[in-house]
Amino acid sequence: MTSDGDGLQMLVQTHHVAATKADAARLALAAGVDFDLSDGSVYRTLINQVKQGIVSQSELDRAGGRVLATKFRLGLFDNPFVDPEYAEKTTNSPEHRALALKAAQETVVLLKNEKNLLPLDLSTLKTIAVIGPNADGLHLGGYSRMPSHGVTILQGVQDRVGSKAKVLYAEGCRFTDKHQDWHGWFDDDVKLVDPATQADKIKAAVDAAKSANVAILVVGENESTNREAWSENHRGDRDSLELLGAQNDLVKAVVETGTPTVVFLINGRPLSINYIAEHVPAILEGWYLGQEGGTAAANVLFGDVNPGGKLPITFPRSVGDLPDFYNHKPSANRSYAFSTRQPLFPFGYGLSYTTFSFDNLRVEPKQIQIGGTAKVSVDVTNSGSREGDEVPQVYIHQKIASVTRPVMQLKGFQRVTLKPGEKKTIEFTITPDTLSMLNVDMHNVVEPGIFEVMVGPSSDQTKTVPLAVTGPYGETGIAPPPPPPAGSDSGVVSNFDDMKTSANYGAWIAGSDKMGGGKSISSLQAVAGGANNSKGALQVGGELIPGAQFLWGGALFAPGGSPTESVNLSGKKTISFWAKGDGKTYTIAVTTEANQGGMPAMKSFAAGPDWKQYSFPISDFQTDGSDITGLAFVSAGAPGKFEFEIDEVEIK
To answer: Which residue among 146, 160, 518, 626 is least crowded, i.e. fewest CB within 10 A of its CB?
Structure first.
């Protein structure tokens, strides 16, 4: 075991648990620290301490023996000398450069691509502006040295374009007073550049953008603003996630030229790029792309490579968005006032130049005993027009447990390359380790219960299938669901042929956002002339009136008699009904006890002049049907009057 740099000196100078370096040496040795990663001044005191009998020789031998044993296991004494010719031949070899390029290309994440601005079509471009403080610098991250070969994004674009188009370059601004590239990692006393001094550079960038068919803006951070903070004059932590210096001013000025703009982010932490996310049509996240970063960036920009990277961290809207991670506890269920809980870009997110669909999610078997395994499968199809990579991700959540569980936890992912139209079944194995947790006694256990297995292309786009885990005697850890409500056996909720707004079970209720303090109104009445020449139908009318954050109004079917009472309809598979109306598009939503207070899962249906039947699997509403509190047939969104009819409503 080794200390970190200056870690032992900090026992004296920072933590004040030792009065002298000799005291620190004894504490560290007793704690099992075998090696001091610093100037050696702390452990040099052990020589005299052993001679004076303060520290035993056996303690020193134990630490030294472990260090030597590690070196023997590493083979350092078998072949202690390197071959300089082999090192020179291997370092930056074609194979290594190819690997660096592949890693950089697979790292890039497409965050936004409005109107398919990307990939850039070089045949339509005469002039390209490459702008930004990170455009002409090599960014390697921390603890790196100058490679014998390196490509900046500016050079990568120039190499890719060649003589086919003119490439203009403008720095745009500087945001630190030291190196703007990887050298900044080693700079001390770094200060921010006053944005007011960057007006001339921004003007030059605007001129370049106005002269170009497209502007590529390379902004973000550099290694002097995002690094290990090892001293007061070598700081790296920040209290903000905003772009530093005049970078936001630069982005706004370029966007306002009207030239189509792509932002390429180079940074080491997630950034609160609210203006960019709203106003820039295409955004790529590159992180620190390494020595081949410029070539990789150009290959992605011009479509030689289809980006398939995913975000390994959430992008919050501000530094105050806490918790800003996807796997938060369920108690983190309140938004800040005048804001939203939704991040700019969620964990696991990433787009592509093609599209993918996820279908037929299933788990086999559907029930296992503790210690058993199950297989989760999903069909992933490339539904677009070009080859691309998708990354199916599997998340787990235990619905009821002895200790509070995160709302979801990533348990596996696979990167798959698919040609246009190609479909592949992706499989994940659910093992005891996948389902385990630390209980109140801090023991690693699997508890019986229902686990939600979620699969999708990102943490906020998943489909769910339940997996039941039973104990050794078949116990599930949860109470059995109640029987289905009386009157639900036939599957028919209402046909309105009695010209009443009644149901075989439960009740119909006129509902709107007025129930939460809004102003919208709705009404229900039975009218003659139902679907399929039946006698009656339910007419739903009203008006959405501004006054609530989310406007809605329509008909609510409460299967338990009231919107707060849940019923067990887990034996049902499908919700079907007929609809007609004023030609507008309406929404059907299913509310559940588990999602009380949250946004329900929704599907849309059109109410045209003629009767049309709609049918939706209950699973589409992210529920197994065991705790349904209501079905809502509503108008939602824009203010205005609405009117539609529904008939032959069935849950079967």
So the answer is: 146
Taking 80 as the threshold, does the pLDDT of residue 480 lie above it? Answer: no
Rounded alpha-carbon distances, angstroms, from residue 561 to 602, 633, 651: 21, 16, 16
- Tell me: the pLDDT tens digits for 33-63? 999 988 899 999 999 999 999 999 999 999 9
The 3-state DSSP class for residue 475 equals coil
Give CA separation, 384 vs 78, 120, 356, 390, 421, in Å.
Answer: 55, 18, 7, 12, 7
Residue 232 neighbours by CB under 8 Å, 6+ apart: none
Nearest C-alpha neighbor of 376 from the set 314, 467, 304, 295: 467
DSSP state of 315: B
Model pLDDT for residues 618-635, shown as the tens digit of each residue = 999 989 899 999 999 999
CA distance 168 to 577: 60
Question: Which run of H or of E encompasses 29?
Answer: helix 21-30
Amino acid found at 127:
T
Is the C-alpha dihedral spanning 153, 155, 159, 161 positive or negative? positive
pTM of the model: 0.78
Give residues with Cβ within 8 angstroms of 444, minimum separation 6. Answer: 436, 437, 438
The tokens for 357 are: 């669909």
**Is the separation of the CB atoms in 66 and 34 below 8 Å?**
yes
Tokens of 308: 């398939």
Point out which residues pair with 577 in neighbouring strands: 614
CA angle 10, 11, 14 (to 5 degrees): 50
**Residue 586 and residue 284: Cα distance in Å, rounded?**
35
Tell me 614's DSSP state: E
Where do the domains of the chain lie, and which CATH numbers do they carry? 7-73 (no CATH), 94-301 (3.40.50.1700), 356-470 (2.60.40.10), 492-651 (2.60.120.430)
Pair 637, 564: CB distance under 8 Å? no
Q: 651: helix, coil or strand?
A: strand
Tokens of 48: 């005299």
Question: 350: Cβ–Cβ under 8 A, 6 or more apart, which residues?
Answer: 109, 110, 111, 307, 308, 309, 310, 311, 391, 457, 458
Instruction: Cite the active site residues.
Output: 4
